[in-house]
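Quick one:
INPUT:
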């Protein structure tokens, strides 16, 4: 679909029609078909906001229980996946800190007490 605009030339005053294509919306997150497991942490945060908004609006407009249940399920799944990603990120940071501490102790001339 496109939109036709009537444009007037500022120099000659002549009017002509310009056909402008309508921009297509690009769905994001679950709507774009990206599974929750493949989303990045930032995408999951955005998906949580979207899912919460959809759930809130469904409750406000007194949507059927089936719809509210589906929206609640989507929101709960996003929250669970977000918690899982947070745990992964925390574990990665702790592993990096431990590796950094081990490297510093080796450079400082301390003996490593780990299993080698």
């Amino acid at each position: 679909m496109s939109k036709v605009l009537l444009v007037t030339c500022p120099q000659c005053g002549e009017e002509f029609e310009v056909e402008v294509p309508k921009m297509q919306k690009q769905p994001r997150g679950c709507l774009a078909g990206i599974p929750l497991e493949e989303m990045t942490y930032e995408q999951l945060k955005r998906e949580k906001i979207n899912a919460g908004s959809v759930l809130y609006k469904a409750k406000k407009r007194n949507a059927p229980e089936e719809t509210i249940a589906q929206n609640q399920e989507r929101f709960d799944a996003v929250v669970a996946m977000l918690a899982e990603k947070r745990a992964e990120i925390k574990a990665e940071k702790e592993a990096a800190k431990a590796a950094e501490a081990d490297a510093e102790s080796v450079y400082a001339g301390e003996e490593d007490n780990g299993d080698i």
